[in-house]
Amino acid sequence: MSRPRSTPASPITTPPSTATAPVADAAAVQDFIAAGEILGSACFGCGPDVPHGLHIQRTGRDGTTAFAEFTVIPEHQGAPGLAHGGLLATAMDEILGTSAWLLGRRYVTGRLETDYLAPVPVGSLVHLRSWCKGVDGRKAYLEAEGRLGGPDGRVAVRAAALFIEVPLEHFTAKGTP
Ligand SMILES: CCCCCCCCCCCC(=O)SCCNC(=O)CCNC(=O)[C@H](O)C(C)(C)COP(=O)(O)OP(=O)(O)OC[C@H]1O[C@@H](n2cnc3c(N)ncnc32)[C@H](O)[C@@H]1OP(=O)(O)O
């Protein structure tokens, strides 16, 4: 059996040669500090009012790299005693979105690729980190990981993603459900 690739990124989530290095936006950095007030409390990833949400806590940033953590509770279980894989993908999406936020524009997830490298037991504290590898027009190329046993512990889940910049109307326009 072949070893896991050193990066989770496929060609779609690998920045092209025309991509530029990400730059943290000063205003977004300020927003990051007050993120709870901006996002409200209903986000499944970070909202404090969602009973069985992930309750992800953002713990810091460095440039466009974002750090956060959350605890896997029994309601997050998939296979017996272990976190549901889709839920871990949600955690990846949240921390990726946080890194994209630091670019200072509005992005949504276009593509999310996830590798599961080790089981995540219920009760685990998962340390999340995401960083942007490059920006090319409306496209931002990001990676993320979730570690167990501490911020430098072993990687249990990792992801690569393509985020697409959208106008504000993307969130305010009412479509047909
Ligand atoms: C501190 C606070 C923290 C804040 C923290 C916040 C955390 C929350 C994070 C959660 C983030 C989410 O879950 S967001 C929710 C999940 N995502 C969504 O709902 C998105 C649904 N999809 C869409 O709305 C649409 O498909 C868009 C906006 C992604 C793209 O539509 P569009 O605007 O018409 O643009 P379009 O021309 O199609 O695409 C633009 C370019 O991107 C490429 N492209 C688009 N999608 C893909 C794709 N899946 N795979 C490959 N390539 C793609 C196209 O080929 C094109 O390339 P080229 O031809 O130009 O080369």
If you had to describe this structure to a student in words, what would you say it looks like?
It is built from four helices and six strands; from the N terminus they run H-H-E-E-H-E-E-E-E-H. The protein has 177 residues and is an alpha+beta fold. The protein has a domain at 54-174: Roll (Thiol Ester Dehydrase, Chain A). A six-stranded antiparallel β-sheet has the order 1-2-4-5-6-3, covered by helices on one side. Strand 1 and strand 2 form a beta hairpin. It is globular and about 45 Å long. The model has no long low-confidence stretch (mean pLDDT 92). Dodecyl-COA (DCC) binds next to helix 1, helix 2, helix 3, strand 3 and strand 6. Dodecyl-COA binds next to helix 1, helix 2, helix 3, strand 3 and strand 6.
Report the total helices.
Answer: 4
Bound molecules: dodecyl-COA
C-alpha termini separation:
44 Å
Question: Which strands sit side by side, in order, in the main sheet?
Answer: 1-2-4-5-6-3
Order of helices and strands: HHEEHEEEEH
The radius of gyration computed from the alpha-carbon positions, rounded to a whole number of angstroms, is 16 Å
Uncertain runs: none
Helicity, in percent? 10-25%
Strand content: 25-35%
Query: Sheet bearing the most strands, described?
Result: 6 strands, antiparallel
CATH superfamily name of one domain?
Answer: Hotdog Thioesterase
The CATH class designation of one domain is Alpha Beta
The CATH topology of one domain, please?
Answer: Thiol Ester Dehydrase, Chain A
What's the architecture of one domain, going by CATH?
Roll
Structural class: alpha+beta
Mean pLDDT: 92
Enzyme class: hydrolase
Protein name: Acyl-coenzyme A thioesterase THEM4
GO molecular function: hydrolase activity
Pfam families: 4HBT (PF03061)
